[in-house]
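We were asked to recover a plausible sequence for a given structure. The inputs and outputs are reproduced exactly as logged, with field labels preserved.

PROBLEM: sequence recovery
POSITIONS: 247
GIVEN STRUCTURE:
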Protein backbone atom coordinates (compact mmCIF):
# COMPACT_ATOMS: atom_id res chain seq x y z
CA UNK A 1 0.00 0.00 0.00
CA UNK A 2 1.57 3.35 -1.09
CA UNK A 3 0.02 5.05 1.96
CA UNK A 4 1.97 2.68 4.25
CA UNK A 5 5.24 3.57 2.48
CA UNK A 6 4.47 7.27 2.82
CA UNK A 7 3.68 6.91 6.52
CA UNK A 8 6.96 5.09 7.15
CA UNK A 9 8.97 7.81 5.42
CA UNK A 10 7.13 10.56 7.32
CA UNK A 11 8.09 8.88 10.60
CA UNK A 12 11.69 8.28 9.48
CA UNK A 13 12.12 11.90 8.45
CA UNK A 14 10.28 13.27 11.48
CA UNK A 15 12.22 11.17 14.00
CA UNK A 16 15.58 11.52 12.16
CA UNK A 17 16.37 7.80 12.46
CA UNK A 18 18.46 5.63 10.09
CA UNK A 19 16.43 3.79 7.48
CA UNK A 20 17.41 0.56 5.74
CA UNK A 21 15.27 -1.06 3.07
CA UNK A 22 15.35 -4.88 3.09
CA UNK A 23 14.41 -6.28 -0.31
CA UNK A 24 13.31 -9.90 -0.67
CA UNK A 25 12.61 -12.10 -3.68
CA UNK A 26 8.99 -11.07 -4.22
CA UNK A 27 8.30 -13.84 -6.73
CA UNK A 28 9.45 -16.47 -4.24
CA UNK A 29 7.48 -14.82 -1.43
CA UNK A 30 4.24 -14.83 -3.47
CA UNK A 31 4.91 -18.49 -4.30
CA UNK A 32 5.14 -19.24 -0.57
CA UNK A 33 1.93 -17.30 0.14
CA UNK A 34 0.16 -19.21 -2.63
CA UNK A 35 1.32 -22.50 -1.08
CA UNK A 36 -0.44 -21.66 2.18
CA UNK A 37 -3.59 -20.49 0.37
CA UNK A 38 -3.67 -23.64 -1.78
CA UNK A 39 -3.23 -25.76 1.37
CA UNK A 40 -6.43 -24.21 2.78
CA UNK A 41 -4.78 -23.37 6.10
CA UNK A 42 -6.26 -20.99 8.63
CA UNK A 43 -3.15 -18.84 9.09
CA UNK A 44 -1.93 -17.82 5.65
CA UNK A 45 -0.16 -14.83 7.20
CA UNK A 46 2.62 -17.15 8.43
CA UNK A 47 4.94 -16.31 5.50
CA UNK A 48 4.65 -12.56 6.20
CA UNK A 49 5.07 -12.85 9.97
CA UNK A 50 7.97 -15.30 9.73
CA UNK A 51 9.93 -13.30 7.18
CA UNK A 52 9.42 -10.04 9.07
CA UNK A 53 10.85 -11.67 12.21
CA UNK A 54 13.71 -13.40 10.39
CA UNK A 55 14.77 -10.26 8.50
CA UNK A 56 14.54 -8.12 11.66
CA UNK A 57 16.80 -10.52 13.57
CA UNK A 58 19.22 -10.71 10.66
CA UNK A 59 19.49 -6.91 10.44
CA UNK A 60 19.82 -6.55 14.21
CA UNK A 61 22.66 -9.06 14.22
CA UNK A 62 24.37 -7.42 11.26
CA UNK A 63 24.35 -3.92 12.80
CA UNK A 64 24.94 -4.91 16.42
CA UNK A 65 21.43 -3.93 17.58
CA UNK A 66 20.38 -5.55 20.86
CA UNK A 67 16.72 -4.49 21.02
CA UNK A 68 13.88 -4.88 18.53
CA UNK A 69 10.85 -2.74 19.36
CA UNK A 70 7.52 -4.47 18.77
CA UNK A 71 4.11 -2.84 18.41
CA UNK A 72 2.44 -5.85 20.02
CA UNK A 73 0.55 -4.85 23.15
CA UNK A 74 -1.96 -6.04 25.76
CA UNK A 75 -4.32 -3.06 25.45
CA UNK A 76 -5.46 -3.80 21.89
CA UNK A 77 -4.26 -7.38 21.22
CA UNK A 78 -4.75 -9.37 24.42
CA UNK A 79 -7.67 -11.54 23.28
CA UNK A 80 -7.37 -14.12 20.50
CA UNK A 81 -8.48 -17.80 20.42
CA UNK A 82 -5.43 -20.04 19.88
CA UNK A 83 -7.41 -22.18 17.42
CA UNK A 84 -7.69 -19.21 15.06
CA UNK A 85 -4.02 -19.27 14.23
CA UNK A 86 -0.75 -21.23 14.22
CA UNK A 87 2.76 -20.04 15.24
CA UNK A 88 4.68 -18.34 12.43
CA UNK A 89 8.04 -19.35 13.96
CA UNK A 90 7.70 -23.02 12.97
CA UNK A 91 10.10 -23.22 10.02
CA UNK A 92 9.71 -26.97 9.60
CA UNK A 93 5.99 -26.43 9.05
CA UNK A 94 6.60 -23.64 6.54
CA UNK A 95 9.00 -25.81 4.53
CA UNK A 96 6.57 -28.73 4.60
CA UNK A 97 3.68 -26.66 3.22
CA UNK A 98 5.89 -25.17 0.50
CA UNK A 99 7.23 -28.62 -0.48
CA UNK A 100 3.70 -30.03 -0.63
CA UNK A 101 2.46 -27.24 -2.89
CA UNK A 102 5.47 -26.83 -5.21
CA UNK A 103 7.50 -30.03 -4.95
CA UNK A 104 10.57 -27.86 -4.30
CA UNK A 105 12.83 -27.07 -1.36
CA UNK A 106 12.30 -23.61 0.11
CA UNK A 107 15.31 -21.33 -0.44
CA UNK A 108 15.99 -17.70 -1.30
CA UNK A 109 14.06 -16.02 1.53
CA UNK A 110 15.10 -14.85 5.03
CA UNK A 111 14.22 -17.77 7.31
CA UNK A 112 14.82 -18.48 10.99
CA UNK A 113 14.46 -21.92 12.55
CA UNK A 114 14.50 -22.82 16.23
CA UNK A 115 18.28 -23.15 16.54
CA UNK A 116 18.95 -19.90 14.70
CA UNK A 117 16.36 -18.07 16.77
CA UNK A 118 18.01 -19.28 19.98
CA UNK A 119 21.41 -18.25 18.61
CA UNK A 120 20.15 -14.70 18.08
CA UNK A 121 18.49 -14.62 21.51
CA UNK A 122 21.06 -16.26 23.79
CA UNK A 123 24.38 -15.83 21.97
CA UNK A 124 23.89 -12.53 20.14
CA UNK A 125 21.76 -11.17 23.00
CA UNK A 126 18.99 -9.76 20.78
CA UNK A 127 15.76 -9.14 22.69
CA UNK A 128 12.29 -7.90 21.77
CA UNK A 129 10.82 -4.98 23.71
CA UNK A 130 7.03 -4.55 23.85
CA UNK A 131 7.31 -0.83 24.48
CA UNK A 132 3.58 -0.05 24.43
CA UNK A 133 3.04 -2.27 27.47
CA UNK A 134 5.21 0.02 29.62
CA UNK A 135 2.78 2.95 29.50
CA UNK A 136 -0.92 3.65 29.04
CA UNK A 137 -1.58 2.99 25.35
CA UNK A 138 -4.73 4.37 23.77
CA UNK A 139 -5.03 3.56 20.08
CA UNK A 140 -7.08 6.59 19.03
CA UNK A 141 -4.90 9.00 21.03
CA UNK A 142 -1.79 7.48 19.46
CA UNK A 143 -3.21 7.87 15.94
CA UNK A 144 -4.15 11.50 16.63
CA UNK A 145 -0.63 12.23 17.87
CA UNK A 146 0.87 10.67 14.73
CA UNK A 147 -1.46 12.69 12.51
CA UNK A 148 -0.77 15.99 14.28
CA UNK A 149 2.98 15.55 14.68
CA UNK A 150 4.06 13.62 11.60
CA UNK A 151 1.28 14.00 9.01
CA UNK A 152 0.36 10.33 9.34
CA UNK A 153 -2.58 9.03 7.26
CA UNK A 154 -4.84 6.60 9.22
CA UNK A 155 -5.94 3.35 7.53
CA UNK A 156 -9.40 3.29 9.08
CA UNK A 157 -9.03 -0.13 10.72
CA UNK A 158 -6.52 -2.42 12.37
CA UNK A 159 -3.96 -3.81 9.89
CA UNK A 160 -5.45 -1.76 7.05
CA UNK A 161 -1.91 -0.80 6.02
CA UNK A 162 -1.52 -4.11 4.16
CA UNK A 163 -3.80 -5.01 1.25
CA UNK A 164 -3.12 -8.72 1.75
CA UNK A 165 -3.72 -8.64 5.53
CA UNK A 166 -6.95 -6.71 5.04
CA UNK A 167 -8.05 -9.32 2.48
CA UNK A 168 -6.95 -12.16 4.78
CA UNK A 169 -8.92 -10.89 7.76
CA UNK A 170 -11.97 -9.45 6.02
CA UNK A 171 -12.47 -12.04 3.26
CA UNK A 172 -10.41 -15.21 3.76
CA UNK A 173 -11.07 -15.82 7.46
CA UNK A 174 -14.58 -14.36 7.41
CA UNK A 175 -15.90 -16.17 4.32
CA UNK A 176 -13.89 -19.41 4.31
CA UNK A 177 -13.69 -20.15 8.05
CA UNK A 178 -16.50 -18.05 9.54
CA UNK A 179 -13.98 -16.18 11.68
CA UNK A 180 -14.49 -12.48 12.38
CA UNK A 181 -11.22 -11.11 13.73
CA UNK A 182 -12.94 -7.86 14.64
CA UNK A 183 -14.48 -9.68 17.63
CA UNK A 184 -11.23 -10.30 19.55
CA UNK A 185 -9.83 -6.91 18.47
CA UNK A 186 -12.92 -5.10 19.75
CA UNK A 187 -13.02 -7.28 22.88
CA UNK A 188 -9.49 -6.11 23.71
CA UNK A 189 -10.55 -2.50 23.27
CA UNK A 190 -13.59 -3.04 25.51
CA UNK A 191 -11.39 -4.65 28.18
CA UNK A 192 -8.97 -1.71 28.10
CA UNK A 193 -11.79 0.86 28.20
CA UNK A 194 -11.18 2.19 24.69
CA UNK A 195 -14.62 1.38 23.32
CA UNK A 196 -17.98 0.19 24.60
CA UNK A 197 -19.87 -3.04 24.02
CA UNK A 198 -22.60 -1.07 22.23
CA UNK A 199 -20.12 0.55 19.87
CA UNK A 200 -18.51 -2.82 19.17
CA UNK A 201 -21.85 -4.48 18.39
CA UNK A 202 -22.72 -1.64 16.02
CA UNK A 203 -19.46 -2.17 14.12
CA UNK A 204 -19.99 -5.94 14.02
CA UNK A 205 -23.47 -5.46 12.53
CA UNK A 206 -21.79 -4.51 9.23
CA UNK A 207 -19.98 -7.05 7.07
CA UNK A 208 -16.24 -6.35 6.76
CA UNK A 209 -15.07 -4.68 3.54
CA UNK A 210 -12.18 -6.28 1.68
CA UNK A 211 -10.08 -5.44 -1.40
CA UNK A 212 -10.97 -7.82 -4.25
CA UNK A 213 -7.91 -9.69 -5.53
CA UNK A 214 -9.73 -11.65 -8.24
CA UNK A 215 -8.90 -15.03 -6.67
CA UNK A 216 -11.81 -15.22 -4.24
CA UNK A 217 -13.82 -17.97 -6.01
CA UNK A 218 -10.74 -20.14 -6.54
CA UNK A 219 -9.66 -19.73 -2.92
CA UNK A 220 -13.08 -20.85 -1.66
CA UNK A 221 -12.77 -24.06 -3.71
CA UNK A 222 -9.56 -25.22 -2.01
CA UNK A 223 -10.30 -27.83 0.70
CA UNK A 224 -9.78 -26.61 4.27
CA UNK A 225 -6.92 -28.33 6.10
CA UNK A 226 -5.51 -28.28 9.60
CA UNK A 227 -1.96 -27.07 10.20
CA UNK A 228 -1.27 -30.43 11.85
CA UNK A 229 -1.98 -32.16 8.55
CA UNK A 230 1.55 -31.03 7.69
CA UNK A 231 4.84 -31.57 9.51
CA UNK A 232 5.41 -29.38 12.55
CA UNK A 233 8.42 -28.78 14.78
CA UNK A 234 7.67 -30.82 17.92
CA UNK A 235 10.69 -29.33 19.68
CA UNK A 236 9.30 -25.83 19.16
CA UNK A 237 6.02 -26.86 20.79
CA UNK A 238 7.78 -28.54 23.74
CA UNK A 239 10.12 -25.61 24.37
CA UNK A 240 7.24 -23.13 24.09
CA UNK A 241 5.27 -25.01 26.75
CA UNK A 242 8.35 -25.16 29.01
CA UNK A 243 9.04 -21.42 28.60
CA UNK A 244 5.38 -20.58 29.32
CA UNK A 245 5.61 -22.42 32.64
CA UNK A 246 8.27 -19.96 33.77
CA UNK A 247 6.51 -16.79 32.64
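RECOVERED SEQUENCE:
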Amino acid sequence: DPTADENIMRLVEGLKVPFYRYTIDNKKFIELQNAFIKAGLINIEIPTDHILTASSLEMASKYGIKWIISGGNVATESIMPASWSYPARDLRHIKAVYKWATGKKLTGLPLCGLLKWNWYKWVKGIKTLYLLDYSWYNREEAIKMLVDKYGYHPYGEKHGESVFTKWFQNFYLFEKFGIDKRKPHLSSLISSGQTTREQALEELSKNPIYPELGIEQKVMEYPKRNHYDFKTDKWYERISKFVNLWK
